[in-house]
Design a protein that fits this description.
alpha+beta, 2 domains, 8-stranded mixed beta sheet
Length: 409
Amino acid sequence: MSIKKIIAIGVIYIIGWAGWWTLGTVTSFRSSGFTHLLETRVQSLWGDNLVQEAPAFYTKIPGTEDVRWLMPVKNDISVEIDPEYKKKGLIWYSTFRSFFKGIYTIANEEEVVQKIYIHFDFPAKGATYDAFAIHLDDRLLGTSVNTNTGIDEMIELAPGQSVTFKVQYQARGMDTWRYQMAKKTGRVQNFNLSAKTGFKKIDYTPNSLSPMSQEELNDGLNLNWTASDLITNSHIGIIVPEKLNPGPLTTRITYFAPVCLLFFFILVTAIGIMKKINIHPMHYLFVAAGFFAFHLLLSYMAGHIWIHTAFIISAGISVMLVTLYLCAALGKEFPWKIAVCGQLFFLVLFSYSFFIEGITGIIVATGSVVTLAILMKLTAHVDWDDVFASIKTPIRNKKTIPACPPEIH
């Protein structure tokens, strides 16, 4: 192996790296370049984050403009969250449907009749709501509704009298659902919130309260928050899990491709040295092109078909291209089965590790160490001076060339 061949292979590797960098940048732009615009469109069509605040109850202090905030003696809330993912471009958005029902019991603990004011805010201003209803005890209120300003009601309670305020609705949202405790009182009594989710991969918003109990259902979870007398300004927040997004995923796989190619180049070079097969730099160029075909197909197929199907098809075509080419170019002496295993390991397995969060690093690290161990074992007895002999320029001994004898006439 000459120094010129090593330099040529290095140039081919750099060209491949530049190609993958370009493809990864284009894929990233396709998936995230219009993300904000597409997200705005999804929000306008479907809905935004839902933040349901606890209704406010208060009385006006006679002779002043001040108010006194009241705490419900009982808070019973239930919500169902069912994901309905929507796709725009190469991005899946975590949209969902929710059905909310809250029952609040307010009591007059004074010795005089009190006028109690109720204010209820909707979780998203200007959004669309279905199955909406408000009850005071068993009486259905047919009041007009403005989702931007909320609902205001006034009731009179005799001493010792109590009333239940019940509100329910169905709404659509995206990414997160939150319930905010009453900020004015900073305290909640006899609180119970039950959340039924249509997913099991649960996560919570920052600075939120964790559930006191959790029950696994067939297709989700049943979460419960209970407290008898809770002092807090925190909220309860549930994050709808993200669906596997083909755009960012293929971008990460594409940017990682030069590492896969480097391992495969080392494997092919080791095979050539051990089997004494003359592998030309052009062979490396076509191998790099076969690897590039995998990422090119995956990048554009992922936007049209299921990402796993696109991965299988792209990987199959790439392995077939590289294997058939090496067999045709290097003949039967080249161990094509080892090449297939190497491509499946370095390209397919390393790339598929990006589908499962948190294991990519350990798979690549383990694969690197295993590859190093195998190569060290196989090449332990290789005479490297003989392999790189052509790199050294032999020094010829200078000899005195005798003068030509005079021509004899």
